[in-house]
Amino acid sequence: MTAPEPHDPPLLSEEARDPSSALAAECLSALMERHGVPARQQAAALAQITTISISQARRKLRGAVWLFGEVLAVTQHFGESLDQVFASPALTSPAPIATQAAQFLVDGQALPCEVRLGAQIKAWAPPTVVLAAAHDAQGWWVASPAALHARGLQGPHYLVAQVSMTQDSQAKPTRIAVVDDDLASAEALGDWFNETGYRADSFTSAAQLLGTPLADYDAFVVDLILGVGQTSHALVEQIRAARPQAPIVLLTGQLRGGVATEADLTTLLRTQGVAFFEKPVRPAVLTATIQSKLDRLANNTPA
User: Fold this and answer.
1) Which residues contact 285 (CB under 8 A, 6 or more apart)?
2) pLDDT tens digits for 87-135?
3) What domains appear along the chain, each with residue ranges and CATH number?
C-alpha cells in the first residue's frame, strides 16, 4: 500500500490553522516539564496518556491540531485544570462567577457543557487565549477566539475559568482501523485520519486487528493483500460478521500484477458490501466515502 500522496495534506479546520494549536503544544509541554517529564520523553508520555502513536504525539507537540479530549486527558493526568494550564493575563473587568450552561464548539460539533466565566478579555483576544466564551440569542458558546469570531459572536468575550462537559453527552470521535502489512503506509494513513478529527489505529496483520475488539471500530480501511500471496478476504468476512453495517474500504495496487484477482475482489464487492479503490488514492476521497456511509447509517438511509 502506497503512502498518502504528499500533495494532498489534511484538510484542517479553521481552529487547527489558528495559533491555538501551537499554543496548546507549548502549554502542555510546559505542563509535562513542571511534572518532571523532560522534553525528550514528552512524545512517549503523550502517546501513553492519549493512546495515540508516538509519531502522532511528536506532530502534536510541534503544533499539529489537538482534539479537546486529548488536551483534557493530559491536564487530568497531571491533576491540573484547563485554566491553570492555559492561564492568561489578558483580563480587564470581572465577570460573573456562576456556572453557565453552554455549547462547546469542537471538531465541528456543538457539545453541551457547563462553563465558569473568567474576566472579560480586552478588545480582541491575544494569541495567548486558547478558549473564550461569548453569548448570543441562543446562549453561551465556548471555543477558540477564531471560532467564536467565525460564528459571528462580536460581543464581549470572556476567559474560561473552568469548563466541564455534561455528564452523558461527550461525543466520541469516529474510530477507524487501518490494516496494511507495510507499517509506514499504515501509520501514514492513520496519522492522516487522526489529523482530520478521527481516531485511527494502524495494524500490519489480520491477527493484530483481530486481537482487539472489532466492536471498538466504526470503519475499516484494509489492504487487499496482506503478506506474500495472502489476501484479506477472510479478514473482511470476519469484520462484516462482527460489524454488519460498518464501512469497509479495500485498497490495492496489485490487481494488474495478478497477486489479487478480480474474481476475489468481485466476490467481496458483491457479498460483503465493501467499497474499493485502486492505489494511489487521495486520503480525502477515503474520508468522504467513509463519512458518507456513516452519515447514511446515522440517518437510517439505505446505501
Assistant:
1) 277
2) 543 333 444 455 788 888 876 677 788 888 877 787 655 566 678 888 8
3) 14-84 (1.10.260), 88-165 (no CATH), 175-298 (3.40.50.2300)
